[in-house]
Design brief:
Elements (H helix, E strand, L loop, with lengths): L1 E2 L2 E2 L5 E5 L6 E6 L3 H20 L2 H17 L1 H12 L3 H22 L5 E3 L6 E9 L2 E5 L7 H13 L3 E4 L5 H14 L6 E3 L5 H10 L3 E7 L2 H11 L5 E5 L4 E5 L5 H12 L10 E7 L3 H14 L18 H16 L3 E4 L3 E2 L9 E2 L2 E4 L6 H4 L6 E7 L2 H9 L3 E2 L1 E5 L3 H10 L4 E4 L14 E2 L2 E2 L4 H6 L2 E9 L1
The structure holds adenosine-5'-diphosphate (ADP).
Length: 473
């Protein structure tokens, strides 16, 4: 673990594995509750002096971290592919995206503006000041093992908060590589701390109950997010939650079905479907169902699964056995309830795939509301197509989920696009666009997909308190 500016490596360890090959990549420090307390103490001790640095100093360190991350892009991407599984090209993109957050928030650090407000009293002035919330505890997932860290570290450090971060147990090596960068560019001791562990619960408990932690930021499943938010509630800690999703992908009959199907295949199979904004229900208006399915089937058939280090492979492994079992359960349930299997539908274990967690790119049509896949997040390489007839019906169907993270709409009709944009209860909506994400744009969900937004101008607000001065003169 990395605490108070030093790497601590002596102690119990756990192994990290490559999900494509099963090989052991390394041994990592196995932190426990006491280590979390130690890291929080270091963060607490550094808090005042870090918040007291000028915004220019904080900005400069973040900008240097951005530069060093880009210098190391190829090595970081290679590590990510081996530890998490995504193809090298996607890993390169993720490192760039991760670095974007460091630069964006290096810039935002200098724009933490206050306000003066006119008073109804002639002898009074109002002064509004923004200041760091204090020590931040962060918990991050394995599916985007570098960018989900910088999306939290960037704004927290820019705002003047110190941080203790716990990465996912499958991807601690990527987290360590990020903290190597923070160390090398010279963040002061205690400002950013890392506790790796094979057992997240005791550390999560400390994060939620330690009085010095003023803010908890979490990205992961809705079930764990709810548990953490409840545990943090007795002390009214501030929380940001980026949780699960169940994105609808709506294709209206005025859209080009071939173009829409290409978009669906690109975004659905990104990261082997292991993304919270991955389309989970692809709604296609019946008049263009056939050309849409023909194109999607052709493209899905060409997706080759395998080790992400080989550029011929476009989809990598799933993260572990539990993920394979979950995907297969949803696929078999859908088939048993009447879905049509057009491609894939089974685990892949030929040759060297046998050592990894691979599932064939799958296309199902005739999905209906009684199937598990219609309700549960899949987090796997399964495109599930639901035919529809009427505009109003599809909006109701799309909104009929407890999730509210991302949605996608294909139409050439401006009125339809705007109406749908307004009616969908989701935080991120791609209109004829499959990548509505950027460090500059607010990312986050409605309903049970979360609380708060990351990235953008709003991202830094999550780490700032508003303080009012009322002054008699
Ligand atoms: P997933 O199902 O995608 O792995 P999780 O929500 O289980 O999502 O994991 C996201 C993050 O939450 C990881 O860092 C994981 O270690 C952490 N986590 C899981 N369970 C707990 C818990 N009870 N307390 C704190 N952190 C947890």
């Amino acid at each position: 673990m990395y605490v108070n500016g030093e790497w601590l490596r002596d102690g119990p360890t756990f192994s990290v594995h490559n999900p494509a090959t099963g090989e052991t990549l390394g041994e990592v420090f196995d932190g426990n509750a006491e280590h979390a307390q130690q890291a929080i103490k270091a963060a607490e001790q550094a808090q005042d002096s870090w918040a007291g640095e000028t915004a220019y100093k904080r900005s400069e360190l973040l900008a240097r971290a951005h530069g060093l991350m880009l210098e190391r892009q190829a090595a970081l991407a290679n590590l990510m592919t081996r530890e998490q599984g995504k193809p090298l090209k996607a890993a390169m993109n993720e490192v760039k995206y991760a670095a974007d957050f460091l630069l964006w928030f290096a810039e935002e650090a200098k724009r933490i503006y206050g306000e003066t407000i006119p008073s109804a009293r002639a002898d009074q002035r109002f002064l509004v000041h923004k200041q760091a919330v204090g020590v931040v505890a962060a918990i991050t997932p394995w599916n985007y093992p570098i960018s989900m860290l910088t999306r939290k570290l960037g704004p927290a450090l820019a705002a003047g908060c110190t941080v203790v971060l716990k990465p996912a147990e499958s991807t601690p090596l990527c987290a360590m590589a990020v903290f190597d960068i923070l160390h090398e560019v010279g963040f002061p001791p205690g400002v950013a701390n890392l506790v790796t562990t094979s057992d997240p619960k005791p550390i999560g408990d400390v994060f939620c109950t330690h009085p010095s932690v003023r803010k908890l930021t979490f990205t992961g499943s809705t079930a764990v997010g709810k548990h953490l938010a409840q545990a943090a509630a007795p002390q009214l800690k501030r929380v940001s939650m980026e949780l699960g999703g169940h994105a609808p992908f709506i294709v209206f009959d005025d859209a080009d079905p071939v173009h829409a199907a290409k978009g669906a295949s690109l975004v659905k199979f990104l990261n082997t479907g292991q993304a919270c904004i991955s389309p989970n229900r692809i709604f296609v208006q019946r008049r263009i169902l056939e050309p849409f399915l023909d194109t999607l089937q052709e493209r899905v058939g060409k997706l080759r699964a395998g080790n992400g280090l080989d550029p011929a492979n476009s989809i990598g492994p799933l993260i572990n056995e539990a993920a394979i079992a979950k995907v297969d359960r949803q696929v078999q349930d859908a088939i048993a309830k009447g879905a049509t299997l057009l491609s894939g539908g089974a685990r892949l274990s030929d040759g060297e795939l046998a050592n990894g967690h691979f599932y064939g790119a799958t296309l199902l049509s005739n999905i209906s509301a009684d199937m598990l896949i219609y309700r549960e997040e899949t987090f796997g390489p399964v495109a599930a197509v639901v035919p529809f007839d009427d505009d109003d019906d599809v909006i109701a169907m799309a909104n009929d989920t407890r999730y509210g993270l991302a949605a996608y709409v294909y139409t050439q009709n401006l009125a339809r696009a705007l109406r749908t944009f307004e009616q969908l209860q989701f935080g991120i909506i791609g209109i004829n666009d499959i990548n509505p994400t950027s460090a500059a744009a607010p990312f986050g969900g409605m309903k049970e997909s979360g609380l708060g937004r990351e990235g953008a101008r709003e991202g830094i607000e999550e780490y700032l308190e508003t303080k009012l001065g009322g002054i008699s003169i």
